[in-house]
Amino acid sequence: xxxSVVEHTETIKNLLAAFEGESNAHAKYTAFAVKADIxxxxxxxxxxxxxxxxxxxxxxxxxxxxxxxxxEAKCEIHPVEVKTTLENLKAALAGETYExxxxxPEFLKEAEAQANAAAVRxxxxxxxxxxxxxxxxxxxxxxxxSGKKDAWVTKARDFFVCAVCGYTSETPEEHERCPxxxxxxxxFETIH
Length: 192
Ligand SMILES: [Fe+2]
Ligand SMILES: [Fe+2]
Known about the structure:
The structure is a single chain. The protein is mainly alpha-helical. It has a single domain (about 5-190), classed as Ferritin. The chain contains four helices and three strands. It has helices spanning about 5-40, 40-70, 85-115, 115-145, and strands spanning about 160, 170, 190. Strands 2-1-3 form a three-stranded antiparallel beta sheet. The model has no long low-confidence stretch (mean pLDDT about 95). One fe (ii) ion (FE2) binds near residues 25, 54 and 133.
């Protein structure tokens, strides 16, 4: 590990904040998926489960770097406020948008300034995966709002999650390898 413990303090703080955010997003999406199924939005439930799995992968990746830097990956899981699926999807999108537009870019800048390659990598992977979630949540929100009975949000379906970086896709075999971390596509997890 390069650099002193002091130099890494800010990076560890950011990693812990990201670990907490991802761990809570996983808990939130899991609860939102249950609600989506109750409301008959089974496809939205599938998406929430897939995104939730990706957040778990991000939390594990962040935890690994926290440990490498001598920290302890601990956080509090907050009670989840479950509303209607439309509201839940909007809350999920707001969280993703915050991570994509401000949280991860700031954390990345700091990790780059410290030349902390492991932190740069785990933040980059999460940032790129959250972009896929933001796009899919936006699509789901539009379909729930449209009220169309045959839209994909109503039927349980498969999503494909990169087991290494959490990149999430609605298409099987979208590429030969993960466009973010280069994992072979056959190693993606199928989430229903
Ligand atoms: Fe996400
Ligand atoms: Fe990946």
